[in-house]
Write a structure and sequence with these properties.
Layout: H1 7-13, H2 19-22, H3 25-28, E1 37-40, E2 46-54, E3 61-62, E4 66-73, E5 76-78, E6 83-87, E7 90-93, H4 94-97, E8 104-105, E9 110-116, E10 124-134, E11 141-151
Organism: Novosphingobium mathurense
Keywords: Carbohydrate metabolism, Lyase
Protein name: C-deglycosylation enzyme beta subunit
Length: 153
């Protein structure tokens, strides 16, 4: 019995530029819904927000291989100078992440991405997109994830 998919279709589906093929199961679980909340200072004012993300590579990665994080919430993109990472009890700016040679982000572990945004986000449903570029020694990894997440507070 012949398969309904032709070999030409299989070859074209295997290209690295096909977003359907590049969307791995791990990337779908990269953005976590738990822990998505505004950051409130001692005066009760929102200074930003935070969300938890999982490593998109099954071996985990050293934080130093994180080359780029592009976070977009409801169409607003946040640049690296507004981002910091909290992991294993330490909070690091993106510049500090580049030199955190001894910190390994294990597969399955969540790190917290903190965003400096005065006033935070309005509670409700948010469209969150994340593109994470990792540059390990063997090949670049570009992981993308997008989902609607509810911000409760």
């Amino acid at each position: 019995m012949q398969n309904s998919v032709t070999s030409d279709a299989l070859k074209s589906a295997r290209t690295p530029y096909n977003p359907i093929v590049r969307r791995h199961m791990v990337e779908q679980c990269m953005l976590l819904t738990a822990g998505f909340e505004n950051i409130i200072d001692n005066a009760g004012d929102a200074t930003g927000f935070k969300l938890r993300i999982r490593a998109p590579y099954f071996r985990g990665v050293w934080l130093t291989v994180i080359s780029r994080i592009e976070l977009t919430v409801n169409g607003e993109t946040f640049e690296r100078d507004h981002l910091s990472i909290a992991y294993q009890g330490n909070t690091l700016s993106m510049d500090e992440v580049a030199s955190a040679e001894s910190v390994h982000w294990d597969f399955g572990d969540a790190l917290t991405l903190q965003v400096n945004k005065p006033g935070g986000l309005v509670p409700g449903i948010q469209m969150v997109s994340l593109e994470l570029t990792l540059l390990p020694s063997h090949t670049p990894i570009i992981a993308r994830s997008e989902r609607m997440i509810t911000l409760v507070r």
